[in-house]
Amino acid sequence: MSIIHTSVGHSVERLDAAEKASGEAHYVDDLYRPGMLHGIVLGSIHAHARIRGYKLDAARAIPGVAAILTGEDFSCARTGAFCKDEVPLARGKTIYMGEPVAAVAACDIDTARRAANAIEIDYEPLPAVLTIDQALAAGAPLVHEDLSNYVKIAPSFSEGNVLWQCRLEEGKIDSAWSQCDVIVEDEFETAAQHHMYMEPCGALAEIDRGGRVTIWSSCQSVHLVQQRTAEWLSVPMSRIRALAPKIGGGFGAKGGLHVQHLAAALALKTGRPVKMVLSRVEDFEIVRSRHPARIFMKTGAKKDGTLLAREARILLDGGAYADESPTVLSFAVLMARGPYRIAHLRSRGLVVYTNKLKASAFRGFGNPQVTFAGESQIDRIAEVLGIHPVELRLRNAVDAGDRWAGGQTLHACGLRECLTKLHNVVEAAPPLPATAQHRRGIGYSAFAHISGLLSTACNIYLRSDGSLAVNTGVVDIGQGSDTILTQICADALMLTPERVSFAEPDSDSSPWNWKTAASRVTYMAGRVVLAASIEVRDKILHQAAEIMECSAEDVEVRPGGLVGLKGIAGKTVTFGQVASHALARFGGPIMGSSSLLFDGERLDPKRSLLEGFAFGNLGAYIFGAQAVEVDVDDVTGAVRVLRVWSAHDVGRAINPKMVEGQIQGGFVQGLGYALTEEMQWDESGRLTNPTLMDYKVPTALDAPLEINPLIIEHPEPSGPFGAKGVGEPGLIGAAASIANAVAKATGKRMHRLPMTPERVLDALIGEA
Amino acid sequence: MNPTISLTLTVNGERQALQVEPFETLLTTLRERLRLTAAKRGCNQGVCGACSVLVGGEPARACLSLTANCVDSAITTVEGLSTPLALSPLQAAMVSSGAIQCGFCTPGMLVTLTALLQRCPRPSRDDIRVAVSSNLCRCTGYQKIVDAVIATIERSSV
């Protein structure tokens, strides 16, 4: 049966927009429970110190203090998704400044804070390592002395402060260089970026009389909150229920725990509800950042522009705990080739521990760093060879049927169309008026990413009135996935979205969903929603045939919740009649369910040399290309982005306006990464700019006048209606396109992010 | 417990008799005492704008305003911009323009932009960008927020 699209492809308004516009949407800090206590964390004052003891009596004696926890209150083993190195509260020693060393619950925040200040901790300071070089130096102090004994889920090649190493080789790189007519070599450096979601992290935990804990929190997965909190509290997952209210952005940082386990532990200790919401400063200091990176890259090409060889060595600063570092490293190594046919590749890297905030997942996941390096070099080669940057990219672009590094086949690829359309639009754009003492340039980048990973599931049932209830466990962190998934179900059953409800994620009742990450929800959750919808549709047809006393082959679903006899206009039964029949007369409730583990090809060790990969397969590849026009002020070195065109192959745009929103928002977050955002630590290990006064995220005046999204649709065969994700790509190429535009404007190649006015001015002055 | 003072605030047209701490901020009073939670605590430092409310018709950072200083002014929060059945034209345009993603900045944006349209009914795109620049948004890249204001103006002039 063909499917007529009633809402897919249309910019349906997001389901929760009116609730958010009215101010009625509730985020975790907007929730209150009777008798609720307020919790806070006490952060370590040393980057690295042994904890010799605690004096808690003075704090406990303050009226209104209900409970104090330290690392000694937790008996759990170390945990972690890839390397089990993390503890719920610092235990034995603290390994970064600000690390939670105690948690307090009291009648109000002020009392809790007074109590935290009254806690005395006997520290023995230890020498700290704060940079990649310090971590790798011979005889460096060890962040984790026991690293060799930690459990790891794959070979990690750990030693000293090196948490993980990873390597991929294809072709014959060492002999390939002699065939190259041009070779460029550079070292690039990128900074720690903070996610800076608008809503600081927080959790509210409550226990019932049976001791079961309910946790509302700002998160990207209720199931991971449940699983990891249970691990840290040493209780079965069935004793924890995790819920998600509205989430004020995540960008990767809320994919793991922040304070959920502390709120839960305090609630268990006191028997009362406990709310913990981080201050902005605490949020900067203790949640997560993007990995700072140092990347050595070498790329070679023939005179005709054929890219022949690339070598990348990627050093990542992972901070105090592993968290997602092994996968970020593996992904950076995998993406360093870029979206090009390059026969000879050696990509390798390592991630080190340092005595700083842990680096982890952040929109792009290691890809923005290597894309900045790789795409800068593509432009250098284009310049040396006198080939237009778009033309050089087109000559080497991957196509459907090609394989990515590591072996996965690309089943759909619109990169060529992205580049071509982008170029045409940019060439046709009217030039902006020039300004004295300013230099203008347009820079390009091309990039790929993945959409997928791991597992997810969906249940759908048909209500007695013929409307549908969809339950996936997916947390909408602001990007609008509730609406997208509703559209997919509605379309599969030819209903308007109003006849489909989308259940709030609840670890008690929602089927497993890994998390909102990896540009995966439209693609992965969309696939299971579509499959479950089709199962419901087939059961509806079967039931309707029973009612109409005919064969299921003779009936069809029609728009508006009807089933009719094929070829006969009038005769129909409604979904409501079908549901009632199923509930009372025959068959029982109509339900559909689907579960999925990403089923694409795995990395192929017969094709490539592969070492230290923390994943076996990833997802569908997604592609994009971007052009950016910048203005560089000769006097101040300030870079302004004037206009952006960003072309993205999304397979199929389920909701074009939301796709545009991802592209525009992603770009501006990338603009911050490129130009202003840098978490900075002093030599004692203190984060010196943990406020929005000192850490500069782009405002509306920093954002370009126009960001023009170009939506390209090369349907992904495995995707729902051909769709794949677009959550991350808007950011991935931003630093590279801006750096290439600055180079076009000034002739100067920037090797370090962010490209602050000082750094640009240094480069400009260097030209004299 | 700190000592409190008695005062009366006018919030969204309703007079409220309250006991507050002398140095209590308007944001704390609105959120913790009145349970008007639309104004958000984004940075508590006056930078992000998520706590913006109208005090005497002018946008103010509730996190930096002392409640005791607001007794003589009418205070409007986002809860006061719509009725239970109808959003304001600007709110409706934010919805239809795709200007809302995570929504955490939305109440503050609405307050700032409502004040802009009261002060200047037909702002240019640049005027709007200047006004929006007092509030941070991390999701939208600001484009569709500016679009929403333009849509509001266009609809009001039909």
Give a description of the structure:
The complex is a heterodimer of chains A (768) and B (158). Chain A has 768 residues and is an alpha+beta fold. Chain A has three domains: 149 residues, Aldehyde oxidase/xanthine dehydrogenase, molybdopterin binding domain (Aldehyde Oxidoreductase, domain 4, 2-Layer Sandwich), CATH 3.30.365; 173 residues, Aldehyde oxidase/xanthine dehydrogenase, a/b hammerhead (Aldehyde Oxidoreductase, domain 3, Alpha-Beta Complex); 232 residues, 2-Layer Sandwich (Aldehyde Oxidoreductase, domain 4), CATH 3.30.365.10. Chain A is built from 19 helices and 27 strands. A seven-stranded mixed beta sheet of chain A has the order 3-5-1-12-9-10-11, sandwiched between helices. Chain A has a six-stranded mixed beta sheet with strand order 8-13-14-15-7-24. Chain A has a four-stranded mixed beta sheet with strand order 16-25-26-27, sandwiched between helices. In chain A, α16 crosses α18. The longest helix of chain A has 28 residues. The radius of gyration of chain A is 27 Å and the shape is globular. Chain A starts with 16 loop residues before the first helix and ends with a helix. Chain B is an alpha+beta fold. Chain B has two domains: 76 residues, Roll (Ubiquitin-like (UB roll)); 68 residues, DNA polymerase, domain 1. Chain B contains five helices and five strands, in the order ββαβββαααα. Chain B starts with a strand and ends with a helix. The chains are: A alpha+beta (768), B alpha+beta (158).
